[in-house]
Amino acid sequence: MKPVRVVVAGIHGHGRNHVENVRRLAATGRAELAGVCDTRPAPGLDVPWSADLPSLITETGAEVAVIATPIHTHAPLAVAALRAGAHVLLEKPPTPSVEEFEQISVAVAETGLACQVGFQSLGSAAVGAAAGLLGEPIRAIGVAGAWTRPFSYYTRAPWAGRRRLDGVDVMDGALTNPFAHAVATALAVAGADAVSSVEGIELELYRANAISSDDTSSARLRLADGTVIAITVSLCAGRRTEPYLHLHGDTRSALLFYTLDEVEVDGVRTGFDRADLLANLLAHVREGEELLVPLERTGGFTRLLDEIRRAPDPLRVEGSRTEPSRLVLPGVEGLAVRAAAELKTLSELGFPGVLGARTTAPATPTEPVAEAAEPAAGPAVPIVAAEPVIWPESLLRAGPREVATYVRRGDLRPTDAPRPHLHPVRTLGGTVVTETQPADHVHHFGASVAISDVNGVNFWGGSTYVPGTGPVVLPNHGRQRRRLLRPVDGGFAELLDWVGPDGTVLAAEERTLVARTVPGAWALDVAFTLHNRTGEPLSIQSSACKGRTGAGYGGFFWRAPKDSPGLDAFTADASGERAVHGSLSPWLALTSDDWSLLFVQTIGLDPWFVRVAEYPGVGPALAWEEPLGVPDRLDRAITVVVADGRLTAERAHELAGAVPPPAPRDLQDSQDPRGSVA
């Protein structure tokens, strides 16, 4: 296929990701970055630049224009690009009003060109598969979203957090921007594509931050076919969670985690593939492939956005908790869970009084704006947390206690090498013993399985060590894509694909994680098997294999908190970082004044990669100094004893000797609901 010439408009924000995506597709021969359009020049990009999109399209001969500019510029730029002869990939949301939506629709019809809207979640096969996994018709949909945003989020651009800018509709609110995918996915599952699909809308818009748009909201939609969609979201949660759709059937329910492309039914999560919308548009241009998210599929979403545009200003929530960099409404996550389950709005659940807060009308008839990185003044009202409700996460329990959360995040960048990981992990006393995305290594994620080089693909994250050059960030990052997660006694069994940047599956993995109690502590049993899927031996390497002395990391890896006092490491034969790093010992202890971690290799015996002084981290190294070839499969297992306080050498030796061998396991009979077997 001849490469499609692409220009990108808006490159200093989210548009940077589009530029990188064009470059990724260019590496496969499907695209060519022909130019960039912005009001400011593009340093470092060796392509034509212009502030005039139609002229840039004409001069470069671009066939596709990616528009990633503020929402109030979408309609004029999309219409101009179409009339200049380019197909369009338009970032979500498409327009702030139905009127502007119709303007683009007319241009699409008159030019015969395509306009794909960047609701990336609608490229997921999970959207179409959800009803089939539920096994009965979907009667209603609840949506729960709870994220946290710092004050700086609302000062990142002149339009951030505003309903209007200089008299022009901007509509940068929780429902219409950060959780736009949640809304669009719910409408897509319900088949509510057209503006006319939505018959009625109830809105409750609130703001705790000093902005003019909503940061905490409910919307309840009644569709023409009788389906109810109840949406509750907030950007004032105490932590980030993965938003989801609660699908209600006649007798059963399912959860669709749209950021992860996963559907959960009866405790079993099934993962699905996701198509890249730009790649789909390029295939449409060259081969006539059907568009996944044509403009007309987003009419229902635009109908809701238009209603929000015409709604009164959000009510001010006073009495939120102020933290160093953000505002928090403690308990709002639980309200979102309840609202999605019960199809209710926030006010019907007692908000904001159930949080110990209250609302006031806007102070003036003119709109407040996001001017400063501090909350607007308001009375100090004590907050009483709402009744706790557990967010639907994968929790590990040792006996009755929740000791770890097994996480797969939907907000990670390709350079993070996205993968499932354990965080937070706690001792029985509640001390957190993992760290995620620390400033010193932002690609460290609690406890996970990560390898720096599998056939040239980086599944560790961050830079790749290049002999003669040193660490370099390359476009070679892979990801671990979940196929199936099901509960087993004490934990989870999981099937994963290790996917390269071009979509090639290099390996399939079987993984089990089981928590159990031991005297005075608890133990985590982790076992994984990598099955080669390339047809030739897999080559596993570390940076040490390429010449970086001592950098043999890769395999199971545990990142512990850096601020822990009194850090030390020892084995049965040696003590101290320098002595145990690279040693071959069945067990190793990483200890502090507050907690201890005892690592025991139960299948395989690899040298220990250990860091203490720079940061606390431990893991057996699969390829310590020489590449490891995997013709068929690789089996490893490790047990980690998690204890409060500092373990003595005698106690560590006693615990290590009591660790039983791993139980026989075979996930090959785990039927993948998508139709294949692991």
From TrEMBL:
One Pfam family named in its UniProt record: GFO_IDH_MocA
InterPro entries assigned: DUF6807, Gfo/Idh/MocA-like_OxRdtase_N, Gfo/Idh/MocA_oxidrdct_glycsds, NAD(P)-bd_dom_sf
The keyword Oxidoreductase is annotated on this UniProt entry: yes
Residues in Gfo/Idh/MocA-like oxidoreductase N-terminal domain copies: 4-119
SUPFAM superfamilies: Glyceraldehyde-3-phosphate dehydrogenase-like, C-terminal domain, NAD(P)-binding Rossmann-fold domains
Keywords assigned: Oxidoreductase
Region called Disordered, residue ranges: 655-678
Keyword Transcription regulation belongs to the record: no
Name of the featured protein: Gfo/Idh/MocA-like oxidoreductase N-terminal domain-containing protein
Organism: Streptosporangium longisporum
